[in-house]
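Batch queue: ligand-bound targets. Current item pairs a single chain with flavin-adenine dinucleotide. No template structures supplied; prediction is de novo from sequence plus SMILES. Inputs echoed for audit trail.
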Amino acid sequence: MNAVSEPDQFDVVVIGSGAGGAPLAHSLILAGKSVLILEKGPLIEPQYRDPRGVSGFKRDELFATGPEKIIRVPNVTNTGKAYYSSHVEPDLNDEPHVYREQLGDDRATIEGYTAQVVGGGTQLYGGVSLRFTPLDFRLGSFNAGRTDILHDPDGSVRREARDWPISYDELEPYYARAERLVGINGTHENQAKPFRSGGTYQPPLSTNPISRFVEVGMDALGMPRYRTPLAVITRDHEPSGRRVPADPEQARTGYVNRYGDPLGLKSSTWVSLLAPLRDRPNFALRYNCVVTRLEAQGSRVNKVWYLDPAGSEHAVTGKVVVVACSAIESVRLLMLSGLADSRFAERINPHGLLGAYFLTHCFGGAHATVPGRYDKSVSLDSDWATDFAGTEAFIREHGLWAGAAIYNNTSDHALPLSLGRTHGNQDLDTVWNGFASDLRLTGEGLLRYLDGTFGRSLSVSFMANQVPLRENRVELHSSVTDKWGRPVAYIVKDWHAHDRYLMDVLARTSADILRYGGDGIGHHPVEGFGGVYNSDNGRARIANHILGGARFGTDPTDSVLDVHCRAWNFDNLYVTDGAFMPTAGGANPTLTIQANSFRVGDHLAERL
Ligand SMILES: Cc1cc2nc3c(=O)[nH]c(=O)nc-3n(C[C@H](O)[C@H](O)[C@H](O)COP(=O)(O)OP(=O)(O)OC[C@H]3O[C@@H](n4cnc5c(N)ncnc54)[C@H](O)[C@@H]3O)c2cc1C
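Prediction returned. Tokens below.
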């Protein structure tokens, strides 16, 4: 690949093949435009696409059997600590993110990366694919003038909440398209979102019997529930040509959260959208290619510079250039391009908003041990969800500014090794915390722990809007560089007082579901509940939901992108990963990123 004779001019150059990049690439390839995707990570195929029938994906525990590595990043307080690296995240020593802790010290982290592989985060995600509610699109007007918002001493909520420049109704057909083309199972009834474009889901699999406790709990509390929409196909999927096994209930896709799916049933953007178009002459995919900077002439990006797998530098041209590297890395790429050319910097960031209003979700939940033992490998990641906490009634009753989705997890703690590995883990998911630092987890203690936990632990999670704050931001770090010598991303963020309050309310609500679920009367013991701000490194935690930093809007002085996700002062530069979001939404974001990418794809097809 990447021989000198390869074409270097395209209608569209897309940087990143994940949720923000692939859907619009799919639409534009089908519309006959020439599309190049540049992707930093490798191409890892599921079994059915490999000539030997062997998948490139391995469960992390089985793959990473080598010794622990040591953080060698200079000028951070955790240098010298041991870590564990997965095969699709960037190596922590090669390209860390750095965040500022409570006491002002800097730490290296892998938080804020999704996955560096063709398909991006959708290769490793749990696949929870919820729409946002109509209210999530208009939190600015909803909160304007309210006097009942609790824990907002400085009025940040009313000042900083923004309406999206598009409404739920405008995005609805694209939600429907994403659900159909990506391949999602679930149920519509009881969702607090109108499904105007009709039925789009494949039918869900049977629930795992452990989820019965959540069913009972939600019913006892009067919470309308629905089967959690999940990006896993349960029927043959005509748009991508994927086939399910004769008995889809037996397919072992139960613990694909955090792992690639060797079967290809999980609907990553690779297997669902890109692989089916792989042989089209107007589609080129160059993987293991890292884009290092964009070069502009006036208002047009005229060169995209990248390093090929051998480390040689190349430039390509697109009539349109789409940046979709996942929000932190997109902001970083734009800032690095600005470092190389001050005119680029002025154009992309005239109001100092690039990197500002970085967002993740307020998240957390509750967990309990339930009677019996359940095989978590036979069902998918989540069985039941409720929009009870996303309604105006709930929001107003608790003095909140926005709502949340609540759902149960079945596949967490599914594998004995991951149980031990993440036990008590407050830091990177890549640290073997359990075995490393809890001496009770040895000998008989480990057996007791596994016996008490394996197949018996049930959790309920919430996913909620975080108050957007200008000071929560992504910058370039002043001294830490990546393996190519470029400044790494520096993440400066904290939780607003209202975020903490909101997480407390939702953690209690999640705990109630388990309390009532265990015995029907609310006395079942709940072992732990809380919001992520309680954890030791609560400032670093990002829920794998990397949003904001280049928000879209209608006012060029208040946003980085216009309504079509085009950078205001550029004619041909678009950003379509999670960076465009002005508010984070009361649910997991990927379906919304995909729907918006299809929307931008239609705009570009018309424009080109
Ligand atoms: C373990 C895990 C579980 C998750 N579970 C869920 C879930 O259940 N539901 C949900 O909604 N979301 C979930 N997510 C989040 C989801 O993966 C992200 O929201 C989504 O993938 C973000 O889309 P994106 O386009 O912003 O970035 P990605 O999908 O991450 O795509 C970015 C791509 O850009 C590439 N890239 C980066 N820099 C460069 C460069 N310089 N040059 C070339 N390529 C580059 C990356 O390698 C990557 O492939 C999960 C994530 C993880 C990691």
